[in-house]
Write a structure and sequence with these properties.
Layout: E1 2-9, E2 13-15, E3 20-32, E4 42-49, H1 57-72, E5 78-84, E6 88-96, H2 100-108, H3 118-130, E7 137-144, H4 153-165, E8 168-175, H5 181-190, E9 192-198, H6 204-216, E10 218-229, E11 233-235, E12 241-245, E13 249-250, E14 254-256, E15 259-268, E16 273-282, E17 287-300, E18 305-309, E19 313-320, H7 329-352, H8 356-372, H9 376-390, H10 397-408
Parallel strand pairs: 2-19, 4-5, 4-7, 7-8, 8-9
Antiparallel strand pairs: 1-3, 3-16, 5-6, 10-15, 10-17, 11-16, 12-13, 12-16, 14-15, 17-18, 17-19
Helix pairs in contact: 1-2, 1-6, 3-4, 4-5, 7-8, 7-10, 8-9, 9-10
């Protein structure tokens, strides 16, 4: 398995008469299988909330979704299941699924009770995943419907970062309307996974299935982007690099030996991650030349090889004395996706500060941005919520969660 790597500037032409030019660099990364190649086995842990608030249909549909996961696993895949209320326990230890009926029996025994301690569930899950992570794709699905009332949110974030350090990806699923979107988003972002919203119980099965299909396509793990800039080229000082596909996430950058390093995590087959870097090119001299080089460091779970390097590709620009723009429309779409996310973030901040008019204005801007990029679903959600605020209405918890998801992803019609 190797890395598919492509890079494109928002406009490959630079104005040589200007002291400085700003450009967005879109970098696409995916896993490319060899002919007749296979993917590594999964090492999956389900971390399930069975607190008292999950009583009735919610818990029953989660059990059904877990059953479907058990049935979908391949012979070499491994599974563990951790459940939590105000405490946590392992109900299925990390194992190859040789007896699906026995595992389903343990799932069926789950009863709603107690409060919510997410971090304890995460801690036990990491212990289980650690026993099966060799030469495997390690993933966790964390589902909860409530606040971490018996736990520590800071500890959750530390555990998510620890998971990433061990190439374990954490995906979070918020069930209903009473979970904390800030905490679950931070866990997913730090853990290299995605945030999902299950608004109604019947959506649990399809959302679990969607996530499972996504993790089945993981080909390479622990990927890091290595970005080398030529002299007189620099990254923006504030929020210089973000992921825009499949989810929008602001990415931390480490500077090491003159190189910008960004951890990306898993690379999928036929579903690229796309990263956007904000660059400034100072005093470009006329001519065509490389302003940057990109490369990827990664691990191959099939072979067990680590710290492999992809090809190193140049990013070329044309500095013109008589400037003519050459805008790349695909990169522009990615720029709009990031703008939509950041505009929505500003709206949420203004709403928290009590500035309802400011929040409504920013949501309208985000809705217009979504329309520009053809994301009708997000545009509808964002505009509806702006209209509610302008009418003096309060946004419900459901409205806020839909807004968060609409800001981070392109909603499917």
């Amino acid at each position: 398995m190797r890395v598919g790597l492509q890079a494109a500037l928002s406009d490959e032409n630079l104005d040589a008469t200007q002291a400085s030019s700003q450009r967005q660099l879109a970098i696409s990364l995916s896993a490319l299988p060899e002919a007749g190649g296979r993917t590594a086995p999964l090492n999956l842990c389900l971390i399930l909330d069975h607190s008292g608030s999950m009583k009735g249909r919610p818990l029953e549909t989660v059990k059904q979704a877990a059953h479907r996961i058990v049935d979908s696993l391949s012979p070499d895949d491994r599974l563990s299941i951790v459940v939590f209320d105000h405490k946590a326990k392992v109900i299925v230890t990390n194992q190859v699924v040789e007896n699906p009926a026995a595992i389903k029996l343990e799932i069926n025994k789950l009863q709603p009770s107690g409060g919510t301690a997410i971090d304890e569930g995460m801690r036990l899950a990491l212990e289980e995943l650690a026993t099966g992570r060799k030469d495997a794709v390690s993933q966790a699905f964390l589902l909860t419907d409530g606040e971490n009332e018996h736990g520590d949110n800071d500890r959750c974030l530390k555990l998510a970062k620890l998971a990433a350090d061990y190439s374990i990806t954490l995906n979070t699923l918020g069930f209903g309307d009473n979970w904390n979107q800030d905490v679950l988003e931070q866990i997913a972002d730090a853990g290299g996974g995605s945030l999902s919203y299950i608004q109604r119980p019947e959506e649990a099965i399809s959302e679990f299935a969607r996530l499972f299909t996504r993790i089945q396509s993981v080909g390479l793990i622990n990927a890091h982007l290595l970005l080398n800039l030529t002299p007189k080229v620099r990254l923006a000082e504030l929020k210089p690099i973000a992921q825009v596909v499949p989810d929008t996430i602001e990415l931390p950058v480490i500077q090491e030996n003159g190189q910008a390093i960004v951890r990306l995590g898993d690379l999928m087959i036929d579903a690229p991650r796309i990263v956007l870097a904000n660059l400034y090119v100072h005093q470009p001299k006329p001519g065509t030349y490389a302003i940057a080089h990109v490369q990827v460091r990664y691990d191959d779970p099939i072979t067990g090889q680590t710290d492999l390097l992809s090809e190193r590709i140049p990013v070329e620009a044309n500095a013109l004395q008589d400037f003519q723009p050459a805008v790349n429309p695909q990169v522009q779409q990615h720029v709009l996706a990031l703008a939509k996310y950041r505009q929505t973030q500003i709206a949420e901040t203004k709403l928290q500060q009590g500035d309802r008019a400011g929040a409504a204005t920013m949501l309208q801007s985000a809705a217009k941005t979504a329309l520009q990029m053809g994301d009708q679903g997000a545009a509808t959600i964002l505009q509806d919520n702006a209209t509610r605020l302008q009418a003096g209405e309060e946004l419900t918890e459901s409205d806020r969660k839909k807004t968060r998801i609409a800001s981070k992803t392109i909603l499917q019609p």
